[in-house]
């Protein structure tokens, strides 16, 4: 490490001009990181690219203006103002065209920026006798040839942009997050849009010196994207992004000096590498964290299988080993499922014994009901008997209340599944005091009639009459309704559905 | 009730004190076809009002007009008896959930704090009072425990509550909500309704764009039935008149069948 440091110090002692490059890169990469945050949050990366390219026309125009009118060559302020104007004009044209035509914004950006860039190229070659701009430097940056005047320009740009961000932080945050609210409390949204565009243009002009037109977007958005993976607050994201901008510049710059590659490319490569590393290891939004979360998560299916196993086992206590043998899945995962169920207070685990809590038993019965209704449904559709259980086992995980109720109704509220096992009753709706359709009732239920539809109009039933439910005739699927006088009615699904009762306790 | 007749605002000046929103002969257009035509209504303070109507019936335009977002072709909006632009700080807008970037790096508390931005000039820092008001607003919607969470890590109902808190931190007396019940499950719907009702109980006026006719009667004190024109404004049982709905919703008869079935079951 100290070797690297000595080499670094020695390098700059021997080549004082490199100090300018170091300073320029540091300034520009930090301020690019800050503005980049707003660019990615507002999804205007492509627009930033457009601004960068439009600069060529601006620089050439600025150069020509001073050269032809005042015979001043390579006037830096003129070129700067030219670039700014070109950027703002491009953005304004993009806004205008996308508002007044059916062409979508990304297409308009593509049209405008290639058009303006190419116009710059035409001007440059047309006036090549007057304009001395190195197109290669412009495209790929000229970090090692930064002049003192450039450095001053960068310092002013950085100071100005940072001042704007600090002063208007709240406004910029609100405009980026919720422009409607911003406008409703009187923040000039359009003006701030232009302030941000101008800042972007300024930063791009500065950045082009370091990495060139082609790569400046990378310098703007890669550090910001990296910070975005780590931060949940805009304020923090701004400085983390600036830091990432700086580190990527430093790494790229050192790399370029060490192995003699183009500095602009090296900086952006370092930045992209940095992004990939963070993308993998970011604690919350990273690839590794996501993988870990998935691994730790207990699949819902396994949880439900465990519940089903406990419910089906004879007796109230089930040994953990019984669950291990009956449920498909690794022992480790089953244990995790058990722990998760204990946390949700659905199971009580006492050493080696597992028992239901009330809530757990209810949940398990809900699943069992879903399973057996799915089995009945599959049989109804003609599924071969040997497939019934397995397919129902897959389908029972679709146990949304409304879906299960639909199956129940469609099948005529069966009481037993195809294997002859009882289907748990609809205990969600069958609560004493609740109004339910009589079709849901099972043998032994009783209630007071509260409503009669037309289909039940001909029957000797009256509102307020207390009726009791006899055993279901499963073969013909007929409900036996026992009247207070002991008389019994055999009703089919449609008729019994027309009766609403308030369930007794 | 006076609200059902917009003309009563002229007749009875005393009433002005109790009116939160007065819309008079409002016409707004984006082209040859007006989005709103000659809409007049007066909403008393402390009401929970639902705005219903088919898609593209001008519900959002009405909200925007009350916010002062669209310039009316004709007509006026008055808030608490003042012209709308003078009462800007008294109205807050709660956006539709779909229009928010939930990945934005911002915490629950920071969103609530945004409600205070309009109260401080841009060159001044927020004061301790602002933080206190934001925290109180979060307390009111029972979101204090989530204050430092990033907003994407909340459930749908919680997300809605954060924006309610922001509106309250704004100190607004009128809250305009765009489809708060869109795409949430039944439990969340109840939770949101609970917040709306508590906000109403605190004396605020709420105007809610709503799409579900079956719950409209249960949720709101009064309803605005819009389709370009104002078809009805008043208590839900008067507005949800089958003939009226047929006229406004034309072919979409399925909705009424459901509605009537529900009425029958009650």
Report strand % of chain A: 5-15%
Give the biggest sheet of chain A.
6 strands, antiparallel
Number of structural units classed as domains of chain A: 4
Q: By helix and strand content of chain A, what is the structural category?
A: alpha+beta
| Number of discrete helical segments of chain B | 10
What is the C-level CATH assignment of chain B? Answer: Alpha Beta
Rg of chain B, alpha carbons: 19 Å
N-to-C CA distance of chain B = 26 Å
Question: Strand order within the widest sheet of chain A?
Answer: 4-9-5-6-7-8
Largest sheet of chain B: 6 strands, mixed
Task: Work out the oligomeric state of the chains in this entry.
Answer: heterodimer
Number of strands of chain B: 10
Beta-strand residue fraction of chain B: 15-25%
CATH superfamily of chain B: P-loop containing nucleotide triphosphate hydrolases
Biggest sheet, spatial arrangement of strands of chain B: 6-7-8-3-9-10
Structure annotation, total helices of chain A: 21
Mean pLDDT of chain B, as a whole number? 83
Report the principal-axis shape of chain B.
globular
* CATH architecture field of chain B: 3-Layer(aba) Sandwich
Question: SSE order of chain B, as H and E?
Answer: HEEEHEEEHHHEHEHEEHHH
